[in-house]
């Protein structure tokens, strides 16, 4: 198959490429076949060739928010390395492989406001749009004007509404066959460029102070949990054994932070093998550098079970991190 891929796609296609170094978790086996797409056209060709050859096709962005299985990933893995960022007036057009950090720096330098929050966000623009990634109360949904993506064999342009964004969610997560190629983000002129530059520094410092960036992880392991109604909130108040004046924290969207839930149940520091729920932020599942995918899966499922049992089945945590190759 390798010679066929090299002939039809590019001589640069490789076999047996280790994926762990390309993920923020630093965990996982190898890609059966691997290709770095430097342009959107490269990525489209890769998808079409994989289809012709009947090969499974996996897109790799910044390797954050994912756990690669120890057995690796079958078929063709395509790294989105189209990282161009073009500022056009108050818009920015960027390749799916562009990094949020550089997007924030470049747009602030161009006198634009709206992406400062993304300065410490890992991953890529494409992955960030797919999962509607966010930080500090903002998310990609707020600035995406349009997305150019391949579906089946056709490149189409989607509007913000077409993307059906939700909390850490979009249609790209649910419908197979999408390949995000490029996006246009709509920003505003920045009234205070010096303040914006200071904000970039502050966000990076806050991240360092609050999140365990000194250990490999995939970011937050679980999504924050949205209570279905007032009754469940009252039941949880009892399950968590809170005092009369204590309140369950809720995000502006009404979700209960998974970090608070895990912390409150005394699971900070809880370990399976070389994987651990961070002492610094309980929703970060970290590796000591030697964890294997099985340690992570076992720890995540033990935490989910403990949370479910401790809350009489009310809270069912859901992974934000995606399992790849399982
Ligand atoms: N909390 C605890 N114990 C902990 C961690 C948090 O009690 O160990 C409490 C905090 O005291 C606070 C609340 O939980 O009252 C919320 O914590 P934080 O402000 O850290 O925010 P979060 O909801 O845990 C979200 C995103 C992060 C993002 C931060 C900062 C999710 C699942 N997480 O975290 O995103 O970086 O806000 O804006 O939505 C990610 O998606 O991978 C991620 C890390």
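Q: What amino acid sequence fits the structure above?
A:
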């Amino acid at each position: 198959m390798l010679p066929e891929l090299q002939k039809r796609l590019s001589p640069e296609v490789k076999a047996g490429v280790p994926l762990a170094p390309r993920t923020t978790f630093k965990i996982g086996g190898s890609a059966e076949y691997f290709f770095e797409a430097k342009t959107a056209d490269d990525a489209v060709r890769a998808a079409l060739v994989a289809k012709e050859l009947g090969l499974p096709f996996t897109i790799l962005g910044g390797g954050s928010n994912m756990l690669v299985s120890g057995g690796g990933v079958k078929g063709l893995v395509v790294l989105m390395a189209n990282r161009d960022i073009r500022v056009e007036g108050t818009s920015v057009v960027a390749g799916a492989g562009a990094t949020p950090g550089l997007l924030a720096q470049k747009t602030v330098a161009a006198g634009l406001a709206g992406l400062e929050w993304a300065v410490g966000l890992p991953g890529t623009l494409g992955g960030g749009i797919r999962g509607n990634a966010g930080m500090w109360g903002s998310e990609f949904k707020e600035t995406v004007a349009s997305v150019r993506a391949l579906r089946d064999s056709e490149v189409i342009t989607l509007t913000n509404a077409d993307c059906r964004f939700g909390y850490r969610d979009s249609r790209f997560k649910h419908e197979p066959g999408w390949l995000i190629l490029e996006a246009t983000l709509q920003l505003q002129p920045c009234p205070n460029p010096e303040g914006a530059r200071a904000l970039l520094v502050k966000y990076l410092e806050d991240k360092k102070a609050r999140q365990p960036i000194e250990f490999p992880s995939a970011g937050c392991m679980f999504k924050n949990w949205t209570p279905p109604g007032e009754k469940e909130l009252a039941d949880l108040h009892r399950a968590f054994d809170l005092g009369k004046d204590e309140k369950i924290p809720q995000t502006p969207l009404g979700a209960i932070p998974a970090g608070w839930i895990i912390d409150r149940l005394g699971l900070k520091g809880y370990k399976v093998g070389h994987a651990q729920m961070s002492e610094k932020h309980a929703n970060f599942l970290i590796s000591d550098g030697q964890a294997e995918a099985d340690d992570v899966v076992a720890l995540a499922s033990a935490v989910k079970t403990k949370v479910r049992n401790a809350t009489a089945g009310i809270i069912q945590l859901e992974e934000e991190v995606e399992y790849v190759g399982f």
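Q: And what stands out in the fold?
A: The first strand starts at residue 14 and ends at 18.
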